[in-house]
Specification:
Mean pLDDT: 84
Order of helices and strands: HHHHEEHHHHHH
Strand order of the largest sheet: 1-2
Shape: globular
Radius of gyration: 21 Å
Distance between the termini: 62 Å
Number of helices: 10
Helix content: 55-70%
Number of strands: 2
Oligomer: single chain
């Protein structure tokens, strides 16, 4: 026998992320007394960042891109002209990296310095894991991508006032000391 509570739990568990957001918005609109509780949960959730998990996610996002995606991006494109495979690979890789960079900016804007630092370190470590490219991946077409984007991430951190601990970053990225030397904070 299924109870009403079981049906509700099942329905909540089955919701998509957008549907969950709608439920939360509606719940907070009808119960403003829950706003502070929800805010506390949001802060707790966003304050935590696991650099190892982020690194794994970044590396997977970049390595798992199908090389066949180049077919739709490289070559002659109307109103754009010829797109070199390296340029196309960079664009596709940038699309995969962008959610991590937006998350970094979001946490920095909220003043979550520790979480932003851990997230940035995870992004850098994930890029570092991709430094050797690999056959049959988009990284093969753009072997400089990880190092170039790592330099961009370090520069972005400086603009966002995310202080990367220089010694720790250099320890993590031993082959990229020239990329981060003089860019990472003290």
């Amino acid at each position: 026998m299924t109870t009403r509570a079981n049906r509700q739990a099942s329905a909540l568990a089955a919701l998509s992320a957008n549907e969950k957001a709608t439920v939360l918005d509606e719940l907070l609109a009808t119960r403003p007394d829950l706003r502070q509780l929800a805010e506390n949960h949001a802060v707790r959730l966003m304050s935590a960042a696991d650099r190892t998990a982020v690194a794994d996610d970044v590396a997977s996002a970049l390595r798992d891109l199908d090389i066949e995606e180049l077919n739709g991006h490289a070559g002659y494109r109307p109103r754009r002209g010829y797109v070199h495979p390296v340029e196309a690979a960079d664009e596709i890789l940038d699309e995969a990296l962008e959610p991590f960079l937006r998350d970094l900016e979001r946490r920095a804007a909220l003043g979550m310095a520790t979480a932003a630092t851990e997230l940035a370190a995870g992004i850098l470590l994930g890029l570092y894991e991709c430094r050797d490219g690999g056959g049959e991946t988009l990284l093969e077409y753009s072997p400089d991508y990880p190092a170039e984007r790592a330099a961009d991430v370090v520069d972005r951190c400086a603009k966002l006032h995310v202080n990367l601990p220089r010694a720790e970053v250099l320890d993590l990225l031993t082959e990229w000391d020239g990329i981060v030397a003089g860019r990472a904070g003290a």
